[in-house]
Amino acid sequence: MPDQSIPEARIAEAPPGEAVSENASPREGISRRRLLGTAGATGLVLGAAGGAVGYASAPAGATPLTSLGEDMAMFHGKHQPGITEGLQARGHLVAFDLAAGASRKEAAALLRRWSTTAQRLMAGEAAAQDDTEVARDAGPSSLTITFGFGNSFFSRTGLEKQRPASLDPLPDFSSDHLDKARSNGDLWVQIGANDALVAFHALRTIQKDAGSAAKVRWQMNGFNRTPGATSHKMTARNLMGQLDGTRNPKPAESDFDKRIFVPASGSTDPAWMANGSYAVVRRIRMLLDDWEKLSTTAQENVVGRRKSTGAPLSGGGETTAMDLEKTDAKGALVVPINAHARIARPDQNGGAAMLRRPFSYHDGIAADGTPDAGLLFVCWQADPLRGFVTVQRKLDRGDALSTYIRHEASGLFAVPGGAAEGEYVGQRLLEA
Q1: Residues with catalytic annotation?
Q2: Full-model pTM
């Protein structure tokens, strides 16, 4: 788990109708019923009879949505949603395999359906048909839906010549204990929202949209702290109790796009990947019973940062630069040589960096009483060999944290750039 996770969602509490997220498109005075069901511009149609939906405009004086439900991410854009937005409170990761006999034509039709659904649900609208109404009373709640292609997708659809070299399988690592049934896949979908029902509604709709074209290969559920749960915005904590994300690349940094997104020109990647990114997905189980036996001081030495504040052991605050050469009175390094934060630093890995945007997970208690819990690690980079692989190889050789975690599932997916108005995601690949 490289020490680069994205800060918690950039959404704070605010009065109803007031914009607080730099990625949101708030609509002042809009009510729950208006947001979810106005039939006007979109002409929503549901039910076997095809009648107009009764999601009527709200009467005057209706209680407006809070800022949390009102926030809306945009489907169309240079990049797909769900990459640069802040952490979301609920998430679902799901991989699909194309059905036997499904071709490029069926894949294109599926991505067209999924894109239409994503656009509608992200706007707070009902699905185009057979909506379950699970999210009827909620707003968009920062819903994002992101689509990617696995290595196997290209042979299944006869598009081998369009498969990027960057999508070659990840190497094996000594910390891997991978379940192949919960790894990889032809297609990958990431769903995030700040409301659990909104996120589930999107997952269920995407699954139904797959129809006979694809079947679920694996699915995982995650969560983060709900925006507004703390008195001020702060870096998220993981299930080990550590602040997780202090050194994540920031969009304001001059080399952010170069590190995270495939350039529109001058790249060895195929043209359809312009403005896209590569997502590495790992289910990382935390061995919490072992971790929690350590003293706070021992935990801090494993990570290299203070548990309470995230500050480096060399001193200062959370964002203070780590002094890797500082020693104590006995001449020992203050930040241990095998501390996670030391090993994962970009300047210790030839500048390699990735944008981490994970979810925590808890899948119950095993028969022996140990929690099946940890991190659904999702990281983004323009080149996974220079990003994730470079850092993970270094961690694999001596990271103190590796004793307390286990990589149990893995996937690598090519995530194309955002769809322009009138396009569906992946159109430039599937209709080339």
Answers
A1: 244
A2: 0.85
